[in-house]
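Lecture 7 notes: from sequence to structure.
We start with the chain below.
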Amino acid sequence: MAGIVGLTELQHTSGNSAMTVDTSGNLTIKTGTTTVKGEGSNNTNLQQGLAKQWVLFQQKTSNVVHDSFNTSSVTDGGTAIIQPNFTNNMTGDTYVITGGVASGIFNGCIMMPSSTGGDDAWTVSSSNYYISGRGNGSNYTLVADINRVPVAVHGDLA
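Predicted structure tokens for the same chain:
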């Protein structure tokens, strides 16, 4: 197999270290942005394209975090309301929250960021956000604790 053996650092033409590879093979990008060639002629800014936080939470029968990234804790705010808290904060409150639900045979929806479906009752901040689970069969107006709540955040970390 051809390749570069023993590479531990890539430097910019100015002599500054741009990337390093440690003994475990972990690549660290020190400065700037990294563009990854995507499909066709499209490119993706790697830092902008990654989820900055995600959590898989169970609220219906217990408050269990099944798996997460950049989530320090999840607060149960009452029926249908949960508040994921970031380990590392976002730069502000202009990030995107994406979520879904799975609750046995009754699938529902997630309302963000407020428990009433609007922005007046709960707000997002740089350190946390609120979501509310809705649904019972075809009735999406009922608030309900949800069995599996998968949520992800995209935006800029502080």
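Points to note: The chain has two domains: 9-48, 51-154. DSSP finds one helix and 13 strands in the chain.
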